[in-house]
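seq as requested:
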Amino acid sequence: MPLIRPIAALIGSAVLAVAGCTSGGASPAPSAGAPSAGAPSAAAASVGTAISATLGTYLTGPNGLALYTHAGDTATSSTCTGGCASAWPPLTTTGQPAAGSGVTGQLGTLTRADGTTQVTYGGLPLYYWQGDTKAGDVTGNGVNGFSVALVGGVAPAASASGAAPAPSSSAKSRY
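C-alpha cells:
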C-alpha cells in the first residue's frame, strides 16, 4: 500500500504535464466539452448570433463565444499574427462556413500567412478574445482596435472605410 501514493502522485504529475503541453492554443482542433475562447473550429465553422442589451445582435462562433473584427484588417489579409493571434485566436475552418439563424451578412474565408483558412464576415476576418470565458461575454470590444462583430456590420471602432460620405440632399448643385 505505501507505493500507491507515490504512483498516484506520479500519474497526476504526468497528466498535468501533458495537459500543459497541449493547451497552448497552437492547434486548430476544437475542444470537447465546455466552450473555450482559444478553440477555433477545425471543421466547417458555423457562425451564430447572440443579443447584447448594449450592442444589439452580434456574431458567435461554434462554441457560443463572441466574435470580433480588427480595424487594421482587409478582405484579403489578417494583420493579427504571432502574439496577437494568441490573444485573439482566429476563427478557422476547413470548409465553407455556415450561417446560423439570424446571420444576415456574407460569410467567406481568407488564407492566413500560416496557411490556415480564417472565416470572414462582410469581408473582415473573425476572431475570438482570450478574455471571454463564457457565452455572453463581450469583454474585448474596443480593445486594441478590435470590435464585436455585429450582425449587419461591426461596432464603430472597426470601421476602416475610406469612402467619402454621400452628399446631403440639402446641398445645392453648381451645374
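The longest helix spans residues 4-22.
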